[in-house]
C-alpha cells in the first residue's frame, strides 16, 4: 500500500516538511516540521507548523510519529508545538547522543540536560521497523552530514533528510562536527541500493532561477545525474569534491539557535527568573 504524502515548504529556511499518512486507517507521521525564527527580533512563529496542523485536522488524521531526520542546523524544529497540538511520539536516530555530547558543552546546557537522548520519545536503531497505521516503515542510518542522520523508508518513498539534494545541487555538506564525506558516500550507496522504484523525498531544495521548486526525485535520476555523486563517481573522487566544496561554505544563518534547541527535541530553553526565554550565543567558538 502506498502512503498519501503532502509536502510543506518553509521558504525562509528552504525546508521541506511532510505529512505521511495511511489511507486505510488515517494514521500519520510528520517529518521535519519547522518553527519560524527571526535572528533580528528573536521572535519565533508557528505559521508553517500551523499549516501542518490545519491539514491534519482537515483530513482527520491521527499522528503516531513526529520524525526528525537529524538535528537540523538551519531551522528550529516545531516538534514540540506539533506534539502539543496533534500528539505523536518525537523520534530521531540514536546517533543524536553523539551530537548532544559535542554541543551540550558548547552551549553549557544546564542540568537536567544529559547527552543520552532522553529528550526524545524514541531513538531509532539502524534497520529498526515502525508502523504508521497499516503502513510499515524502516529506518536506515545515513551518517556523514551529521552523526545522527537517518532516512525513513515507507513503502516506495524514502525521506532522506539532508543526505541528498536535487541533482543540480548535489549532496549535504560534511564539515559539521561528526561529519565525514567518506561516511556520507557510504550512506548514499545504501540509498542507491534500494529498489529502483524508490522516490527520494528531500528536506531542502535550492532551485536555480531556471526551474521551480521540487521536493521529490526518483532514485534512478539521482544515480545518473547527481552532480556530486551520480554517474558512478568513486568514493575517493567524491570525498575530494565534497571537501573542496565544504571549505568554501559559511555557517548556516540559524545554526546557533537551531542546534541548541534541536538537540533537545525542539524543547525551548526554560524561562529565566524574569519569565523570558533566552538563546545563548557562544563567542569565538563555532
Key phrases:
alpha/beta; Metallo-beta-lactamase, Chain A; six-stranded mixed beta sheet
Please tell me about this protein's structure.
The protein is α/β, with parallel strands linked by helices. The protein has one domain (about 5-260): 4-Layer Sandwich (Metallo-beta-lactamase, Chain A). It is about 25% helix and about 25% strand. A 6-stranded mixed β-sheet has the order 1-2-3-6-8-9, covered by helices on one side. Strand 12 (about 150-155) and strand 13 form a beta hairpin.
**N- to C-terminal distance:** 45 Å
Q: From the helix content, strand content and strand pairing, which structural class follows?
A: alpha/beta
Instruction: Provide the residue-averaged pLDDT.
Output: 96
In CATH, the topology is named Metallo-beta-lactamase, Chain A
Number of domains: 1
CATH C-level: Alpha Beta
Helical content (DSSP H or I, runs of 4+): 10-25%
- What is the gyration radius calculated from CA atoms? 18 Å
> Which regions have little confidence, pLDDT < 50, spanning 5+ residues?
none
Order of helices and strands: EEEEEHEEHEHEEEEEHEEHHH
Level-2 CATH architecture: 4-Layer Sandwich
The beta-strand count equals: 15
> Looking across the biggest beta sheet, what order are the strands in?
1-2-3-6-8-9
Amino acid at each position: 500500500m502506498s502512503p498519501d504524502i503532502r509536502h510543506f515548504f518553509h521558504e525562509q529556511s528552504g525546508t521541506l516538511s511532510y505529512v505521511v499518512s495511511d489511507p486505510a486507517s488515517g494514521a500519520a507521521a510528520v517529518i521535519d516540521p519547522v518553527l519560524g525564527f527571526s535572528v533580528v527580533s528573536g521572535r519565533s512563529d508557528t505559521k508553517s507548523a500551523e499549516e501542518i496542523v490545519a491539514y491534519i485536522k482537515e483530513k482527520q488524521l491521527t499522528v503516531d510519529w513526529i520524525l526528525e531526520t537529524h538535528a537540523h542546523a538551519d531551522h528550529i524544529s516545531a516538534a514540540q508545538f506539533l506534539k502539543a497540538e496533534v500528539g505523536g511520539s518525537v523520534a530521531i536516530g540514536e546517533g543524536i547522543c553523539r551530537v548532544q555530547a559535542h554541543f551540550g558543552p558548547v552551549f553549557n546546557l544546564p542540568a537536567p540536560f544529559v547527552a543520552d537522548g532522553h529528550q526524545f520519545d524514541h531513538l531509532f536503531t539502524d534497520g529498526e521497523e515502525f508502523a504508521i497505521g497499516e503502513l510499515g516503515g524502516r529506518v536506515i542510518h545515513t551518517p556523514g552530514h551529521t552523526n545522527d542522520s537517518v532516512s525513513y523508508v515507507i513503502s516506495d518513498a524514502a525521506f532522506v533528510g539532508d543526505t541528498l539534494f536535487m541533482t543540480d545541487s548535489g549532496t549535504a555538506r560534511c564539515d559539521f562536527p561528526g561529519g565525514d564525506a567518506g561516511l556520507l558516500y557510504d550512506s548514499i550507496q545504501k540509498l542507491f541500493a534500494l529498489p529502483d522504484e524508490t522516490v527520494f523525498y528531500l528536506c531542502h531544495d535550492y532551485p536555480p532561477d531556471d526551474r521551480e521548486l521540487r521536493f521529490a526525485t526518483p532514485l534512478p535520476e539521482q544515480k545518473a545525474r547527481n552532480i556530486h555523486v551520480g554517474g558512478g563517481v568513486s568514493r575517493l573522487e567524491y570525498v575530494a569534491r565534497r571537501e573542496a566544496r565544504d571549505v568554501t561554505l559559511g555557517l548556516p544563518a540559524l545554526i546557533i539557535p537551531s542546534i541548541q534547541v534541536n538537540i533537545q527535541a525542539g524543547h525551548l530553553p526554560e524561562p529565566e527568573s524574569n519569565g523570558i526565554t533566552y538563546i545563548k550565543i557562544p563567542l569565538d567558538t563555532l
